Target: Lipoprotein
Amino acid sequence: MIRKISQISFAIIIILILVSCKNTKQKLQEYVVSYNADAKSFKSENVTLTTARGYINDSKIELRFETNLEKNAANELAANAAFPKLLKEMISKDQIPKELVEEGVQFDAYFLANDNTVLVKQIINKEELPEILK
Model:
């Protein structure tokens, strides 16, 4: 009787382990869906909207941060200073998961002016992660 219970328990544990394991593509998809669902509550200075788009075959996620800033030299300079800090903060809060980056997913983050032109682009991958977290 005890042996039968042990076998059933073992089988259930194995099934749970297999079901709970997700591959990188599944995690990428879940991250994009979750990020976009939470985007309404995202708060950051000058950011009016943020969205994520996943590219499963390329193991890439594009993060867009639309702002109310005009495209000019002063705003580009300010964005070059502020955007890496924002990304570092997002990584520390797990809004950009290190786990995905370490699994090979690349994040292309764009800080956009009010006319959707790029003020700053930052790539987050295994090589750039230590530099961003400094």
Summary: The longest strand covers residues 47-55.
